[in-house]
Write a structure and sequence with these properties.
Catalytic activity: (4aS,6R)-4a-hydroxy-L-erythro-5,6,7,8-tetrahydrobiopterin = (6R)-L-erythro-6,7-dihydrobiopterin + H2O
CATH superfamily of one domain: Transcriptional coactivator/pterin dehydratase
Oligomer: single chain
Mean pLDDT: 94
Family: Belongs to the pterin-4-alpha-carbinolamine dehydratase family.
Helix content: 40-55%
Organism: Modestobacter versicolor
CATH architecture of one domain: 2-Layer Sandwich
CATH class of one domain: Alpha Beta
Strand order of the largest sheet: 1-2-4-3
EC number: 4.2.1.96
Largest sheet: 4 strands, antiparallel
Number of helices: 3
Keywords: Lyase
Strand content: 15-25%
Length: about 100
C-alpha cells in the first residue's frame, strides 16, 4: 500500500492546532502520556501497539516508569504525513487530556 505524501509546513501547523497534546513540526511530532502507575504505562504501550498494528504505522515509544513518550514520523516520506496525524488522533481518543 502506498504511503501518503509529506505534509506542507502549513498543513502541519493546522493539524497541530487540532492536536494540542502533541508538539513538533514537519519532521515529526511527539506526545508524552502520563499514567498513574508503571503497570498502566506498560498497558498503554500495548494499547498504542494495537492501534499501530491496525494502521500498519509504528511510533517510536519510550517507557520511563509512569510516562510513555511517543514519537511519530513517516520515515519513507521524510516527514509528517496524514498517517501520522491519524495515529495521533487515535492515541488522543484513547488517552484524552487528564484534568
Amino acid at each position: 500500500m502506498p504511503r501518503p505524501p509529506r505534509l506542507s509546513p502549513d498543513d502541519v501547523a493546522t493539524a497541530l492546532a487540532e492536536l494540542p497534546m502533541w508538539s513538533g513540526g514537519p519532521d515529526g511530532i511527539e506526545r508524552t502520556l502520563e499514567l498513574p502507575s508503571f503497570r498502566a504505562a506498560v498497558e498503554a504501550v500495548s494499547v498504542v501497539a494495537d492501534v499501530a498494528e491496525q494502521l500498519d504505522h509504528h511510533p517510536d515509544m519510550d517507557l520511563r516508569w509512569t510516562k510513555v513518550r511517543l514519537a511519530v514520523v513517516t520515515h519513507s516520506a521524510g516527514g509528517l504525513t496524514e498517517l501520522d496525524l491519524e495515529l495521533a488522533r487515535r492515541v488522543d481518543a484513547l488517552f484524552p487530556a487528564r484534568d
